[in-house]
Amino acid sequence: MKVYFIGAGPGDPELITLRGRRLIEEAEIVMYAGSLVNPKLLDWALPEAEIYDTSSMDLDAICAVFKKRAGHTGSIARLHTGDPSLYGAIGEQIRFCRAERISWEVVPGVSSFSASAAALGRELTLPGISQTVILSRRQGRTPVPEPQRLRALAQSQSTLVLFLSASMVKEAMEEIAPFYGTDTPAAAVYRASWPDQRIIEGTISTLAGLMQEAGIDRQAIILVGDVLNPGSFEASKLYDANFSHGFRSGRETTGGEA
C-alpha cells in the first residue's frame, strides 16, 4: 500500500494535475477534507473505492486508516486542498508513515494563492515594484515564530499573501500599515476558482471594512502590495530586444550601452 498526498487544487476540479486525477482513479481508498476539497473530484474514484471525509477525523483516526491498509497492495489517495506543501498538515502524517514504514509520496497541486492571483489578473512579481512574494499568516491559535510575525515581514514591502487570516484581517492590516502605508492596494479572494468566488479590492485602510460588509471572514486569500495596482513599471528583461540570454542575442545598439 502506498499513500499519495495529493494537491487537490483550489477548488475547480480542472485545476488538479493529470497525475493527481489518475491516482484518484486508481486508488482503493480516497481520503479528502470535505470542508475544503471539492467533492466533484470523487466522481473519478472507483465505484468500489472506500471514501473517507477527514473533516471530522483527527490525526489518530486518519493514521489508523493508513496502518490498517499497510500490508495490502494498492494505494490511498489522500487529498489536500491547494498544494499540500502549504499549510497542508501533511508533515505529521508523513512522520507517521515513516515511523510505520509505510510507502508515501507527495503530488503537488495548484495553490489557492496562485488561483487568487489569476482571479485578480495580476502578476505578483513586477520589475521595479516587487521581486519577492511572502506567503504567511497572522498568528491565531497556531503560533507564529516571533521573527516571522507580520511586523517583521512587512519591513521588506514585498508582495504579501496571507493564508488563514480572513477572520483577523483588521488586525493584520493594522500591523503592516506602518511599513506599507495605508493607501497600498490590498485584495481578498474568497474561494478562488469555485463557482461562488468573490473578489474584494481596496487598500490596507479599507479592506477590512469591505470584507466585513461582504460577510467574508473565512476561506479567503489576502494579497497586499503595489503589484495589485502597478501603474507604471519596468518591462521584464526576458523579452527586451536589447537583452541577450542563452536563447537569443540582443540587438546591437549604438551611442551607448544596451
From TrEMBL:
Q: Name one GO biological process term.
A: cobalamin biosynthetic process
**Presence of keyword Magnesium:** no
Associated pathway = Cofactor biosynthesis; adenosylcobalamin biosynthesis
Gene3D superfamilies to which the protein is assigned, alphabetical:
Cobalt-precorrin-4 Transmethylase, Domain 1, Methyltransferase, Cobalt-precorrin-4 Transmethylase, Domain 2
**What is this enzyme's class at the first EC digit?**
transferase
The EC number on file is 2.1.1.133
One GO MF annotation is:
precorrin-4 C11-methyltransferase activity
| Protein name per Swiss-Prot or TrEMBL | Precorrin-4 C11-methyltransferase
Protein species of origin: Sediminispirochaeta smaragdinae (strain DSM 11293 / JCM 15392 / SEBR 4228)
What taxonomic ancestry is recorded? Answer: Bacteria, Pseudomonadati, Spirochaetota, Spirochaetia, Spirochaetales
